[in-house]
């Protein structure tokens, strides 16, 4: 049964992680004593472990073992990817320190105190050598104490956003860090000490943690879920104990009388009020001509109106079809008026249909009722219904296998059909991204789900596959696309003959190769040091964003024919505003891309997809580069955006940007991976 997680529980769990992170920063044992913090931490972690199942404990131990097995090169690759200074990376003792510290996150409470002491003893001198006494645990604890208090305040304020998915704890963490370092001179100085000695600030600590989790893959995900479940149960027990001892709740001073209704069953989250749970009596199951079962659900406009009128703010309405309703297909029918009612409340709201087969999230602004009514020959939308269909389908052309891939989920056909009387029209193309989800197939006991090797794909009519932006969480693939079609999730295991496991950009190259975004040469190599040209960069962005052209190329470039092999992708990029030509009317497709030009293209891509400005690190600017004067005015703002977003980090330990230097294929893979993670298009 899925736990109902309230904000206090989540903040409590985050607090454990934050105190852990501050406690494991080893220092010279003579400079500070933090036994009280250690005792508190150990007690809390023990409590979490006492509330975990044996399976959950095994999951955490697996993550601990996997972390300990990371090679020095693995750890260096993780740290170099977040901008750690090169001279620090060359310190083998520092690499050992980081690996041992990362293991502490997965250490059981009964071993934690001894392990903290061991890490302090073994690595205290290394830490002191790096910071020369400029950083102490006391200073870190002061920051994290203020951090925890401010984070809880933000969570209380934005709990609806967090539950609805429009923001996340990670975003709140970064926002809190930025505000604290801006408001408090001591914290700003602490941040500066970290930057000066390590090359990263406080936010970089969290980035390192995320990079370790990315490297460990599903092992880290399972461990995190296990720890969270233990923290939730521990907090629930604390709440129960508090309620049991909170005093007399009786009327008139007598003994308290338990109520008939368990308060834990009462909806407590904002989304409960906007969730329509379909009852078995509300559905009609029919057998389609091909012999499959289809569940039909009709939603009355009054149900939507009641929700809209009862809520101050409505971001989504979810129609949930329970798993025990057995059907290969589900169709939820909503009157056009329901969409219009919701749009009048919030033009950016979504109508969600959730089934065991998959989930569809359709923005109300993606359904133009006037156009649909006209296409159906109806004078108005009163008689129009919008049917959202989610159907378990098949890979009839064996496209997955034919493309050398493995299936990692069932094939699901997503459709939106407008109906008026006996007329109907499929709604296939959307102006913005539409989100859908598919559950992953159960892996065998010997398999692990490495999401870096997975991506959702659209199965095209010609048997080809188009990768789409995909994020994985809790055994579910959530992907974005602008068209309806058949979708599935595939597994890939690509490797390139000239990219060794310890190559600095290997993780990004292999990850994007597995996600069908980048490809190698015919001889099986990748040529990482080869320069990226303009059309290659264009193709990579189009693939990364899952774009398709809606129109025909208009012949605007004198050096691009309308039958060029890349013309459809170029047209898609032109329609999205990602690329433009040169002043002489050419596109110059095979010209090398400079770092400034790449920044401009990525900035346009960010503008096209949109992004959360709170994720930008405003403390990072181009002022840190000694060659900043070489950055042209035409690209300066875009380069700064790339630096604030952490997409580009500079060269020579971040001392120069090298705006006119060419972007190699390896560098392109790294910045593209950074970009897609920043806009939440991949994990």
From TrEMBL:
Residues 1-29 form the signal peptide. InterPro entries: Cell_Envelope_Struct_Comp (IPR051465), SLH_dom (IPR001119). It holds the Pfam family SLH. PROSITE patterns: SLH. The keyword Cell division does not apply. Keywords: Signal. Residues 237-280 are annotated as: Disordered. Residues 492-551, 553-616, 622-683 form the SLH domain. PANTHER family: OUTER MEMBRANE PROTEIN ALPHA-RELATED. This is SLH domain-containing protein. It comes from Lentibacillus halophilus.
């Amino acid at each position: 049964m899925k736990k109902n997680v309230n904000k206090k529980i989540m903040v409590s769990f985050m607090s454990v992680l934050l105190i852990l992170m501050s406690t494991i920063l080893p220092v010279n044992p003579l400079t500070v004593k933090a036994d009280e913090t250690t005792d508190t931490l150990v007690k809390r972690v023990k409590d979490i472990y006492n509330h975990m199942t044996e399976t959950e404990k095994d999951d955490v131990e697996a993550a601990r073992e996997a972390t300990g097995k990371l090679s020095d090169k693995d750890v260096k690759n993780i740290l170099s990817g977040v901008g750690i200074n090169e001279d620090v990376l060359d310190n083998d003792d520092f690499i050992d320190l980081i690996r041992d510290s990362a293991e502490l996150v997965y250490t059981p409470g009964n071993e934690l105190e001894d392990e903290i002491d061991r890490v302090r003893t073994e690595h205290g001198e290394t830490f002191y050598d790096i910071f020369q006494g400029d950083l102490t645990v006391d200073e870190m604890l002061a920051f994290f104490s203020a951090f925890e208090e401010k984070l809880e305040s933000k969570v209380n304020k934005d709990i609806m956003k967090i539950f609805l998915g429009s923001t996340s704890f990670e975003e709140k963490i970064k926002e809190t860090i930025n505000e604290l370092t801006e408001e408090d001179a001591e914290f700003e100085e602490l941040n500066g000490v970290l930057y000066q000695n390590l090359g990263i600030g406080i936010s970089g600590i969290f980035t390192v943690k995320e990079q370790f989790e990315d490297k460990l893959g599903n092992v880290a995900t399972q461990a995190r879920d296990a720890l969270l479940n233990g923290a939730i149960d521990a907090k629930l027990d604390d709440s129960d104990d508090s309620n049991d001892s909170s005093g007399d709740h009786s009327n008139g001073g007598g003994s308290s009388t338990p109520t008939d209704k368990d308060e834990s069953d009462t909806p407590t989250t904002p989304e409960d009020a906007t969730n329509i749970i379909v009852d078995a009596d509300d559905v009609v199951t029919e057998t389609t001509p091909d012999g499959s079962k289809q569940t039909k659900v009709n939603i009355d406009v009054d149900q939507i109106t009641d929700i809209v009128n009862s809520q101050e703010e409505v971001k989504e309405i979810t129609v949930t079809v329970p798993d025990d309703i057995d059907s290969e297909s589900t169709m939820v029918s909503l009157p056009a008026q329901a969409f219009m009612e919701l749009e009048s409340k919030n033009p950016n709201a979504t109508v969600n249909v959730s089934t065991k087969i998959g989930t569809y999230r359709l923005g109300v602004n993606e359904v133009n009722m006037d156009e649909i009514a006209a296409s159906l020959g109806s004078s108005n939308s009163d008689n129009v219904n919008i049917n959202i269909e989610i159907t378990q389908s098949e890979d009839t052309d064996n496209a997955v296998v034919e493309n050398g891939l493995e299936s990692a989920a069932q094939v699901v056909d997503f459709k939106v059909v407008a109906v008026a009387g006996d007329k109907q029209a499929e709604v296939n193309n959307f102006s913005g991204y539409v989100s859908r989800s598919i559950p992953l197939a159960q892996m065998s006991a010997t398999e692990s789900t490495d999401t870096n090797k997975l991506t959702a794909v659209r199965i095209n009519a010609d048997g080809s596959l188009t990768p789409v932006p995909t994020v994985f969480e809790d055994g579910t693939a959530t992907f974005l696309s602008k068209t309806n079609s058949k979708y599935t999730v595939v597994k890939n295991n690509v490797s390139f003959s000239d990219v060794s496991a310890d190559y600095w950009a290997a993780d990004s190259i292999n990850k994007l190769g597995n996600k069908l975004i980048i490809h190698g040469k015919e001889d099986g190599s990748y040529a990482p040091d080869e320069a990226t040209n303009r059309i290659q960069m264009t193709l990579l962005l189009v693939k990364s964003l899952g774009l398709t052209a809606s129109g025909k190329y208009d012949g605007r470039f004198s050096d691009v024919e309308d039958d060029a092999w890349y013309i459809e992708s170029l047209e898609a990029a032109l329609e999205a505003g990602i690329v433009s030509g040169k002043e002489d009317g050419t596109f110059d497709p095979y010209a090398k891309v400079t770092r400034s030009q790449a920044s401009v293209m990525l900035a346009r891509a960010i503008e096209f997809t949109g992004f959360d400005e709170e994720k930008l690190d405003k403390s990072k600017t181009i002022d840190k580069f000694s060659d900043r004067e070489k950055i042209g005015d035409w690209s300066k703002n875009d380069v700064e955006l790339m630096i604030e977003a952490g997409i580009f980090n500079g060269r020579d330990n971040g001392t120069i940007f090298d705006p006119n230097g060419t972007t190699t294929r390896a560098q392109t893979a790294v910045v593209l991976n950074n970009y897609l993670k920043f806009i939440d298009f991949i994990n």
